[in-house]
Specification:
With 224 residues, this protein is α+β, with helices and mostly antiparallel strands. The protein has a single domain, classed as Pseudouridine synthase (2-Layer Sandwich), CATH 3.30.2350.10. 15% of the residues lie in helices and 34% in strands. The chain has 4 helices and 11 strands, in the order ββαββαβββββαββα. Strands 1, 2, 3, 4, 5, 6, 7, 8, 9, 10 and 11 form an 11-stranded mixed beta sheet that branches. A hairpin with a 4-residue loop joins β8 and β9. The longest helix has 12 residues. The protein is globular, with a radius of gyration of 17 Å. The two termini are 31 Å apart. The mean pLDDT is 94.
Amino acid sequence: MIKISEQIVANNNQYIAFNKPTGMSVQPDTTPEKSLLELAEIYTKRKLFIVHRIDRPASGIVVLAKTERAAQELSTQFKNRMVEKVYLAVVKNTPIAAEGTLQHHLKKILKINKSVVVAEPTEDSKEAILHYKVLQQSDNYQLLRVELQTGRFHQIRAQLATIDCPIKGDVKYGFRRSNSDRSIHLHAWQLKFQHPVTKEIIHLTTPPPDEILWNSFSISDLES
């Protein structure tokens, strides 16, 4: 069983950051399992504030603010695209180009809890931009570095699927088989932002899950 205290990446008076495990939601939902927010509040014995989210089946860095002022400042940074967000994704198919920029318009479909790419912008679609690069290859899979320029619902999952590179385990977006634990091989790897009070540049990095496929890549040797 995962102890939330063992997932702490950074902790100070303004925020606490965790390496969220796969299968855990960031905030409470309809399932009986406790969310990261609930577990973090039990650990810190105080109210915390959500400033950004990552998907339940994904893993990686999540920052929770400890004060309303810090929450407002960090939320503004995310909203104004001042935060550098870098993910790792494992895909089976090789992208046509080893690196590139994907720019689409995404529409969120609430009934199926999914984002779809639309051919032309609409009133309820949003522009989505990311930059990707193939970092390593194994016999069967590719490890991609993905940097988000925007932060849309299921953005990485939808955009990679659109270029025929669905993330391993992500059957919602076209991968053929689910992972046994219903996770997907998408990890919020690095986060760079301004400290909400000191304005110091904070650069957080977290390792992906200790799992056979992730371990097959030399992630510890990678540079940001």
